[in-house]
Amino acid sequence: MSKVLIFIDWFAPGYKAGGPITSNVNIVEHLSDKLDFYVITSSFDYHATAPYKNIQENKWVDWQGAKVMYINPSCLSWKVLKKAVEEAACDVWYINGIYSRYYSLYPLLLAKNLKPKKVIVCARGMLSPHALAVKSVSKKIFLTLAKTVNLYRNVIFHATNEEEKGYIQSAISKKNIVDVAENLPRKMDLQANGCVKVKGEVRLVSFARISSEKNTLFALKALRKCKEKVVYHIYGQINSEIYWQECQKAIAELPTNVTVEYKGCVSPHDMQKIYTHYHALYLPSTGENYGHAILESFMNGCPVVISNKTPWLGLEKKNIGWDLPLDESLYALVIDHLSRVGSDEYLQMRSCVIAFISAYLSNDETRKRYLNMFQL
Fold first, then answer.
1. How many CA atoms lie within 13 A of 284 on its CB side?
2. How far apart are the C-alpha atoms of 123 and 362, rounded to whole Å?
3. Phi, psi angles (nearest 5°) of residue 123
4. In whole angstroms, what is the distance from residue 218 CA to residue 324 CA?
5. Order of strands across the sheet with 92-96?
6. pLDDT tens figures, 226-252
7. DSSP category for residue 288
C-alpha cells in the first residue's frame, strides 16, 4: 500500500483545535484499509500545558490504523522533524495549514531536500478572504515571501470545495494543481432519538471555539431579542479571555426568558450522548470551510440554525434547519419560531434530517476523491 505522511499541529486524542483534528482522524479512519498512514504531531492538545496522558512521546506508536509520532514541543526542532520524516519514509506528504513553523513551513522546506514523490497542502480555510483579513499584514508578507522563494512549486493543494479552490488560486497561483474533496464524516451510528420537544421552549447547543470567527458574541446578542423561553449551552475552547469577557457581559444582559451556560470542552466521543438533550445546533459563524459540527448535528438527527456563510445551504426548504444572513433579528425570529414548534412538527423535522444525512453519507464519491488525491 502507498504510505502517506500527515503533518498536523494537533491530532487525536486531542480535540480542542476542532475541525482540523476531526478531518484528519476521519481520513485515517476511512482510508486506512487502502493506505498506510504516518502522522507527525504534537504531544500536547491545543492550549494545553501538559502532554496527553498515557501517550509515549517522541517515538512511533500505533493509533487505530496509523503510526503516530507525538513530539514534545520542548524537543521539536528541524533535526528531530527530519529524523522522524526519514524514519517514516513515505512517498506522499499531506501538510495541514499554511503558517505553522514546524508542521507547515518546515515540511515544505524538508521536501525540497528529501524530494517525496507527492506533496499535498491542505489550506484548511486559511486562504479565504475572511481568514486573510485577520493579522493581514504578517500574512501578506509571508505569502509574498513564499512566492518569491517558490515555496509551493510542484505542490498540490487540497480544497474542500470549489469556492476554496478559487481562494487558493488567488492567494498562491493558478499554476498549482488544486484537488477538490470535501471533508469525510466521522464514522458513527446515526442518532434517531432526541430531546422531547414541548411548545414554548427550545434547547440550543453549540460545539465550537469561543471566538470571533465562530461569532459567539453575535449568537448571544441575537438572543436578547427572543420572546420565548430559550436555553443555550456553549461547548468549546475559549480562544481569548478578552473576547470571552465580552461574551459574559452579553450573557449578563440577557432577558430572564433566556438561560445561557458555558459547559467547557468536550471530547467528540461524548457528543452523541450530549445531543440527546438539545433540539438544535445554534452556530451563526462568520464562515465555515466545511463545518464538522453542522454535519455531526445532522448525524445526531438535530436541525441547525446557522449562518449562510457555510457550504450547508437551502436548509429550510429541506425542513432540516435554517441558514441565515448575519442579522440578529432574523435569528431571534427563527429561534422563537422553533420554540413554538410542538412535538409532532419537531419529530417531522428530525425525520427529514435523518433522511437527508442518510442520503449524504451513502455517497462514496468523496472517499474515491481522497484515494485519487493520495495515489502516485
1. 22
2. 27
3. -70, -20
4. 13
5. 60-63, 66-71, 35-42, 2-7, 92-96, 118-122, 156-159, 178-180
6. 999 999 999 999 989 999 999 999 999
7. -
List, in order of start, the domains of the chain with CATH numbers: 2-184+364-374 (3.40.50.2000), 201-361 (3.40.50.2000)
At 137, the amino acid letter reads: V
pLDDT for 257-313, tens place per residue?
A: 999 999 999 988 888 899 999 999 999 999 888 888 999 999 999 999 999 999 999
Q: How far apart (Å, rounded) are the C-alpha atoms in residues 320 and 98?
A: 34
Distance CA 347, CA 206 (A): 21
Q: Which triple of cell numbers denotes residue 331?
A: 435569528
Q: For the purposes of burial, counting CB atoms within 10 Å of the CB of 299, is it exposed (0-12), middle (13-18) or buried (19 or more)?
A: buried
What is the rounded CA–CA span in Å between residue 167 and residue 108? Answer: 20
The Cα angle at residue 95 between residues 90 and 96, in degrees rounded to 5: 145
Question: What's the grid cell of residue 154?
Answer: 510542484
Angle separating helix axes 328-340 and 216-223, nearest 10 degrees: 60
HSE on the CB side for 186, CA within 13 Å?
A: 24
Q: What's the distance, CA 29 to chain centroid? A: 16
10 Å Cβ neighbour count for 198? 13
pLDDT along the chain (376 residues), means of 10: 95 91 94 96 94 95 95 96 97 97 97 96 92 91 93 95 94 93 83 85 96 95 98 94 97 98 91 93 91 92 96 96 98 98 95 93 89 93
Per-residue b or e along 233-242, where b marks 16 or more CB atoms closer than 10 Å to that residue's CB: bbbbbbbeee
Q: Residue length, the chain?
A: 376
Burial class (CB in 10 A: 0-12, 13-18, 19+), 8: buried
Contacts of 172 (CB under 8 A, 6+ apart): 127, 143, 146, 147, 152, 157
